[in-house]
Design goal:
The chain is α/β, with parallel strands linked by helices. The protein is about 40% helix and about 10% strand. It has twelve helices and eight strands. It has an eight-stranded mixed sheet, sandwiched between helices. α1 crosses α2, α4 packs parallel to α5 and α7 packs across α12. It is globular, with a radius of gyration of 18 Å.
Length: about 325
Amino acid sequence: MPDLTGRTAIVTGGNSGIGLIECRELARRGARVILACRNQEKGEQALAEIRRELGDVGEDAQIEVRPLDLASLASIRAFAESFAIDHPDGLDLLVNNAGVMAPPRLETEDGFELQFGTNHLGHFALTGLLFDSLKRTQDSRVVTVSSIAARMGKLNFDDLHGRKSYRRWLAYGQSKLANLVFALDLQTLINQAGLDIKSMAAHPGVSATNLTSGGNDLDSGLMGLLSKPFLKLNDLVVAQGAEAGALPILRAATDPDLAGGSYIGPDGRGERRGRPVIVAPRKLALNREVADRLWQESEKATGVEFDFTPVAPAA
């Protein structure tokens, strides 16, 4: 990883699992890191853990915790507004990392299905509301974390929020496919506007973290392989630890040689584990009609519109 001194990063869900590791390593390389998380107490505990693990480096590390509930558009707006006031120089890196996996059907504060609302719509809104801050810095970057579950996802535009039919793992796959479509489509729109921003996608493979405790009512096939009991029984065969799972996201966030629109994942069989390399997204994620429809539906749901007009970088 390159030296990140002077650069500012936001990591959603930075208080545990892969997100905590991302925050730790970004801080280790000198970045100012904001842990954006719903639970302030857990965020402060994570901050203390990061400082301990970094040792002497941790004493001087610039890390802070800010409240952000991705299941609340009001919370997202408040976070973005306060960040813009406190950081008029802009934002260098946004890591859309937080997520929920396979709960029973629940709704966000705004009436969205929880997984689609948190994993995709929350990050769509956050990125749009922080977009002016991203435009104010040179070579800024957005990394949106998808999943191998995106392979089995389907964007059901007639029932995105599972009101007619809900299967928790299929809904999770839909939300992670939406993450991937959004990340790649964002780069297309950035290119069209001529902006100095890179939008990346990444996935951690199958990583044994707290996110994998989604419940027992599992669908068959690959979704079933993501359950916590399977990971425990097959850790040496399939799942990798959170440290390894964080590597694709960290490479997507910091590798200066990556082109915008890159998708990073493990190089092992089935992309379940291994070294972080460029991987191929499924063709559906590159479908122009699907991308346009998802963008329109996301704007309509969140009320957030991206401003692709160039602005002068902060002095």
